[in-house]
Amino acid sequence: MNAPAYNFAYLDEQTKRMIRRAILKAIAIPGYQVPFASREMPMPYGWGTGGVQVTAAILGPDDKLKVIDQGSDDTTNAISIRKFFAKTAGVATTTATEDATVIQTRHRIPETTLGAGQVLVYQVPIPEPLRYLEPRETETRRMHALAEYGLMHVKLYEDIARFGHIATAYAYPVKVNARYVMDPSPTPKFDNPKMDNCAALQLFGAGREKRIYAIPPYTQVVSLDFEDHPFEPYRYNAPCALCGADNSYLDEIVTDDKGGRMFVCSDTDFCEGRQADGHHGSLSAAPYKEKAQQQETSNG
Amino acid sequence: MADQALLENDEPLLIADGLSKSYGKIAACRDVSFALYPGEVLAIVGESGSGKSTLLQLLSSQLAASGGRVSYRMRDGITRDLATLGEAERRFLFRTDWGFVHQDPAQGLRMAVSAGANVGERLMAVGWNHYGRIRDTASDWLTRVEIDTARIDDAPKTYSGGMRQRLQIARNLVTEPRLVFMDEPTGGLDVSVQARLLDLLRSLVAELHLAVVIVTHDLAVARLLSHRVMVMKGGRVIETGLTDQVLDDPREPYTQLLVSSILPP
């Protein structure tokens, strides 16, 4: 038995063509959820089967792939998907946001501004923004068709009535190209402004729900809000403990059982890049001294 | 100005013309015609299975008629056949110029969201985008239907049956509709709560100059609320006239039976 004869990027060509057709339609109608014949992938639903299919359909031999999970390049999900494509497509992979041509992501948009020619592929668990407000799929489709989005504001109203402010912190609904209301997948609302007028193509794949949607480059994306309760991106008010960045989205890491915690950039590539440029946070000295020493010994 | 208003009141708001609905061989509703004027309350009475609810659904264009048509005078003064409206227009009409009060409030309310959001939903659907103003309007309406404004953030599932029904009415009236359909609005409520609700409905109808089509099997409700009564049996309208005339001096044998079956007070 030799190595299994996978087609390039795992999926067969007919399937990839079907997915590409769905992607083209999605790009033509920004924010509209296009149904597609989602395939079973060699991973469980909820692990990014939608994103993987979109990536497989758009990947070419010259592409450079980056995969992030909650901003991080080195979590299980990110590593296994990166390995999956390295094995089945033989494409180059990277962790550097600037170098990547295709970035598959779960729950974050990289801090580094994306450029033209890059594609951001989101893994989406629940594509329907109206799902928990209106249980009937036939009805939500009709509401999208007729642009009846009053219900979306009911959810925001409930937030304010209950908590005094819009407490929705992730999967914050947006209106794309002044037409379709869209779920940006469970990214923190901190990332919402990055979607607006973005130079990169943004594709969303939901495998279990069998939907693909897209935001073409330079498309208007507006977060829904009230006049007297405007949209506000949320960020914990602290600098990153490793690189000192005060404008990045932070992860909270519990360090002991006595209430000790540190806040670090959730985007590991961004954080490492800043540290390599000589930025320091309150807790950053030790690991980078090590790395510097390693470099010295290898050079010397 | 007064002449203008008079002129507008002269034109019917809703016209049913030869309305029929059949399910295969079963005719649920046969050849119903009438005109409803602004500010007029029409009660449709009859026993279970007489086609009252089918008629109400035909009138509110939730059901496509097998024959005949329904026309409605829109806010711009033009009377249009409802079957020719697009779905978007029909749905817009339904949540702005019309109201529909269900017998079971759970059908007409969102049970899991707060009372304020329930009342505010129609406003948000027509583009209101100011939280403070939506909330003020909602609490104003809660006061009008005699619900304590301290309960504005409670979900209707924590409300009593009578409160739910009043909330449903507030939710429907917030966009100041001109026509309200009611399907047994007092069904399932105890007598004292019924009386309060009827009282409230009567004053709101007069105050807002609402036209109402109310379906009920309770002749007392018809007597209290309506100006005119239509009696249905087997899908046909068998008698129609002013409320006191029909109820005090019924002509048809079936109506006589219906009236005589009320227990004397």
What number is the mean pLDDT of chain A?
A: 92
What is the oligomer described by this structure?
Answer: heterodimer
- Give the total of beta strands of chain B: 10
Low-confidence stretches of chain B: none
Radius of gyration of chain B: 19 Å
The geometry of chain B reads as globular
Secondary-structure element series of chain A: HEHEHEEEHHEEHEEEEEHH
Order of helices and strands of chain B: HEEEHEEHEHHHHEHEHEEHH
Spatial strand order of the main sheet of chain B: 6-7-8-3-9-10
Q: Largest interface, per-chain counts?
A: A-B, 16 and 22 residues
Task: State the total count of DSSP E strands of chain A.
Answer: 12
Strand sequence of the main sheet of chain A, in spatial order? 1-9-8-5-4-2-3
- Percent range of helical residues of chain A: 25-40%
Distance between the termini of chain B: 46 Å
How many helical stretches of chain B? Answer: 11
Percent of residues in beta strands of chain A: 15-25%
Ends distance of chain A: 45 Å
Helix content of chain B: 40-55%
Described by strand count, sense and barrel closure, the largest sheet of chain A is: 7 strands, mixed
From the alpha carbons, calculate the radius of gyration of chain A and give it in angstroms: 20 Å
Biggest beta sheet attributes of chain B: 6 strands, mixed
